[in-house]
Each structure stands twice: as structure tokens, then as C-alpha cells.
Amino acid sequence: MSSLIQEITPASDQQELCFADSNHTFPFSTSTIANDLLNKWNVTPEFITKRFRMSNSNSRSDNEIIKGLLTDSGVRNALNLPATCEDLELTLEPLSTTVMNMSFFDKLKLDSEIITEEGGMVRGCMDEEFDGLNVQDKLREMLLNPESENSDLFSEAEKNEFLFHILKLVCRGGSLMQAESHFANWKDMTKKLYKDFITVNRGEGGAIEITSKVFKVSGGGLFKLESRHNDLFVVIDGAPTNNLISVIKKDYKPFW
Q1: Is the pTM of this model over 0.85?
Q2: How far is CA 228 from each of CA 12, 14, 26, 231, rounded to the nearest angstrom?
Q3: Which backbone phi and psi does 156 adopt, to 5 degrees?
Q4: CA distance linking residue 81 with residue 70, whole number of Å
Q5: I want to staple 214 with a disulfide (CB 3.0 to 4.6 A). Which of 95, 194, 196, 253 is the partner?
Q6: Could you tell me if 218 and 99 are in contact, meaning their C-beta atoms sit under 8 angstroms apart?
Q7: Nearest-CA neighbor of 144 among 117, 178, 170, 108?
Q8: What is the torsional sign of CA 79, 82, 88, 92?
Q9: Closest C-alpha to 255, from 177, 172, 152, 150
């Protein structure tokens, strides 16, 4: 089932939304191993993660909150966006957050020939280029090639999961990517980022549930260069915080 994509409408004339940098340090950013891997994959330096504290957000729609966030001058400066944003037209795509464990990726070795069942080695493939990114393995080929023979391995609903999008972000990397020969590092980094950006609480009856709302945002004025390899995700915290909003931004930077 395809996800619903909504055009963002202008914010109403209510009291102005305000956003302030919460100065939050995401746990992944303090890990030497995590940072070494992100550098190896060329995810950094074009990788920005920020958390902001919102005020006057009560009774606002998600559309209004995201519109207000990305038109705020302080936020735009923190995210390295252009200073001006006249006639900003954005589209948001709600992503699912139903996955609770990494068995979600088991089908990569059980239902395909992408990863070896013993040892977790990522199988290689003939060199191919997808909009400036060179690919030499079946995992990245599946993620970046819409015509891949493995494109149907994950359903449309599974591809709409935030966890799947994070895997794609780290595996895609940048134009100077040094790819992994084993899946473990990519899987562990995906898990680490997922845990760092979502809010988990106990619901009724003590069941664990994810209360964050996640949106993939696209549109003009967000990136230095238009590319399908760009990513911008907005995560609106659920209870008990409710007033925190996080942004993950990854610009594609070509080698040449």
C-alpha cells in the first residue's frame, strides 16, 4: 500500500510558532566507532542532525508545524539552508514506525541472495552507476535501483518504514562511499540511529509502542543540489515530551 503524500498548506494566523535549538547531543554522535563508519561511508560531512524545542504548537497540524519549522530563520541557519525561503513549497510523506526489532531485515539472507546466510557477507555484483553513485554489491543495488530484480523483496508498506529509510541512507552513503563487505555494521548503525530519533513509551497494558511521528520532506529550497539521493526527515516527538522536533538532513554531494 503506497503512503499518503500531502501538499503542505500555509500556516494559519495563530500565535507564531517558535523553535529553539535544544542543544541535544544524539548518542550516535559521541561514538568514535559510529563516526568512523559514517566517515567511511561518506555520509558525513553533509549529514546534519538537530533537535529543536517548540512553543505555541498546541492545536497545530503536522503540516503547519513542519512549515513553521522550515521557514524559521534560526532553524534554516542550523540546517545550512538558504537564508531566504520565499514561496516555499514543500511536500511531506508520512513514514511508518511500527518496526520494533531488527528481524525486519532477516529476509535479506533468508529470502534472497543478497546476504549470505552464514557470515552475513554482502554479495557483490557488476559495477553500476545510479545518478552519480557507483554500486558494486547486491544490497545497495536493491536499495538504489528501482528496476532491481530484488525490488519486490520488501513490500511497499515495508519500504515506507522509517527503519528502511535509515538503512537506505547509511548504505547509500556519498559519492566517496567505501562499502561494507558484511551487513553487520550497516545493520548496527541503522539500529543505533533509529533508537536515537524515535520516542518509545509503554502504552495501555504495558505494551511498548513508538509514539513519534516521522515525515520525509521534499521540495525546493532544501538542498544545494537537486538529487534523488537527498534526504530530509522530520521527527515529531510523542508523549510525554510532545514539544520536541528533530531533523535529519543528508545532502548529496557529487564527486566531480
Answers
A1: yes
A2: 31, 35, 26, 8
A3: -60, -40
A4: 9
A5: 95
A6: no
A7: 170
A8: negative
A9: 177
User: Using CA atoms, how far apart are residues 252 and 232, in angstroms rounded to an integer?
Assistant: 11
Q: For residue 8, what is its C-alpha cell?
A: 503542505
Three cell numbers, residue 127: 559495477
Q: Are 19 and 72 in contact (CB under 8 A)?
A: yes
Q: Which residue's C-alpha cell is 513553521?
A: 68
Interacting residues of 233 by C-beta distance below 8 A, sequence separation 6+? 95, 162, 165, 197, 214, 215, 216, 217, 247, 248, 249
pLDDT at 87: 66
With a CB cutoff of 8 Å and minimum separation 6, the contacts of 223 are: 230, 232, 251, 252
* Joined grid coordinates for residue 226: 537537486
> 89 with 82: CB under 8 angstroms?
no
CA distances from 230 to 92, 210, 225, 244 (A): 14, 26, 8, 24
Cβ atoms of 225 and 252 within 8 Å: the answer is yes
**Block residue for cell numbers 504548537:** 57
CA neighbor of 186 nearest in space, from 116, 130, 105, 127: 105
Task: Look at the alpha carbons of 104, 6, 86, 212 in this order and tell me if their dihedral is positive or negative.
Answer: negative
- Per-residue pLDDT of 101-151, as tens digits, reads 999 999 998 888 899 987 799 999 999 999 989 999 999 999 999 999 999
List the chain residues with pLDDT less than 50.
1-5, 8, 10-12
What are the DSSP calls for 84-141, one per residue? --TT--EEEEEEB----SGGGGTHHHHSSSSB-TTT-BBPEEEEEEETTEEEEEHHHH
Q: DSSP class of residue 4?
A: P
Residue type, 233: F
